[in-house]
Backbone:
C-alpha cells in the first residue's frame, strides 16, 4: 500500500510539475531547442506557442523593422514586390546565442509560395550550419510551397526535418495537432 501511495505521489508530482514526457523522450539533455517564428496575423504564433509549450524550447519572434500594414491587400502587394525584388527587409531580431542551439523550429506563413522575405533576412544573418531545422507553416492552400527547397538552399549545411503545415484558419487546432506531429519527429 505504501509503495502504491508513493508511486501515485510521484506520478502526481510529475503531472503537476509541468514535466513533458514528449520533451524528455525526443530531446536528450544535451540538445538545446529554439522556436523562431514570423507571424503577421497571429496564426503562426499559435503554432510556435504550442511547440514551445510541448518542448520547453526558448522562443524568438522575427520582427521586421518596418511592420507590414494591417490591410490585407496592402500586405499582399508588399510581400509580392519584396519577392519579385528578392528583397531582404531589415529585421530587429538577432539571436546572439544561436551557436548554443542544436535544434531550431522555424515557423512562418506561406506568402506567394514561400517564406516571407523577412525570414530570408533572418536566416542569412544567422549561421545554422550543423543544426537540425524543423519548419512549420500556416497557409491557405499552398502548404509549404517551395519554402523547403528555399530553406535547403539558404541552409545547405543543416538537416531539414519534415515540417508541419496547417491552414491558417485551423491554427486554433495547434494544441492538439502539434503534440501528434512532435511525437513522430526524431530530433
Residues:
Amino acid at each position: 500500500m505504501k509503495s502504491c501511495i508513493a508511486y501515485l505521489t510521484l506520478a502526481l508530482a510529475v503531472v503537476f510539475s509541468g514535466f513533458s514526457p514528449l520533451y524528455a523522450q525526443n530531446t536528450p539533455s544535451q540538445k538545446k531547442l529554439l522556436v523562431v517564428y514570423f507571424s503577421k496575423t497571429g496564426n503562426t504564433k499559435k503554432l510556435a506557442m504550442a511547440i514551445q509549450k510541448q518542448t520547453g524550447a526558448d522562443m524568438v519572434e522575427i520582427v521586421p523593422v518596418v511592420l507590414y500594414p494591417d490591410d490585407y491587400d496592402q500586405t499582399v502587394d508588399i510581400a509580392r514586390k519584396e519577392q519579385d525584388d528578392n528583397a531582404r527587409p531589415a529585421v530587429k531580431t538577432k539571436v546572439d546565442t544561436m551557436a548554443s542551439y542544436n535544434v531550431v523550429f522555424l515557423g512562418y506563413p506561406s506568402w506567394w509560395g514561400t517564406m516571407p522575405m523577412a525570414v530570408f533576412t533572418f536566416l542569412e544573418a544567422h549561421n545554422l550550419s550543423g543544426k537540425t531545422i524543423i519548419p512549420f507553416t500556416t497557409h491557405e492552400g499552398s502548404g509549404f510551397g517551395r519554402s523547403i527547397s528555399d530553406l535547403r538552399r539558404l541552409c545547405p549545411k543543416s538537416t531539414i526535418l519534415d515540417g508541419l503545415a496547417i491552414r491558417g484558419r485551423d491554427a486554433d487546432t495547434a494544441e492538439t495537432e502539434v503534440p501528434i506531429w512532435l511525437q513522430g519527429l526524431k530530433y
About this structure: The chain has one domain: 19-184. The longest strand covers residues 132-139. The domain at 19-184 is CATH 3.40.50.360 (Rossmann fold).
